[in-house]
Design a protein that fits this description.
Largest sheet: none
Number of strands: 0
Number of helices: 2
Order of helices and strands: HH
Helix content: 55-70%
Shape: elongated
Strand content: under 5%
Structural class: mainly alpha
Length: about 80
């Protein structure tokens, strides 16, 4: 189980406990703890996603090098039709 998953489970436990608490301050503290746990889990998942993208980019082959001295194509302009007078 990853740390992000453990944080999500902790958030769920806090929310379940908050439902059964009568004291408003305790209920709000549990909700705040749940929110913090979810934020941390999301941050860990974002960081893991970015790290994975960097690893994928690093494993890609480099683009081909341009060929120097190759003949360039010449752009041909259409001829204008002559107006008969």
């Amino acid at each position: 189980m990853t740390k992000a998953q453990r944080l999500r489970e902790q958030a769920a436990r806090c929310l379940r406990l908050a439902q059964g608490v009568q004291a408003d301050d305790v209920r709000q503290s549990l909700r705040n703890l749940a929110a913090e746990s979810l934020e941390k889990a999301q941050a860990l998942e974002r960081a893991a996603g970015q790290q994975q993208q960097q690893q994928q980019v690093g494993s890609m082959p480099p683009p081909p090098a341009p060929i120097h001295g190759a003949a360039q194509q010449q752009q041909v302009q259409p001829k204008k039709a002559e107006d008969p007078e």
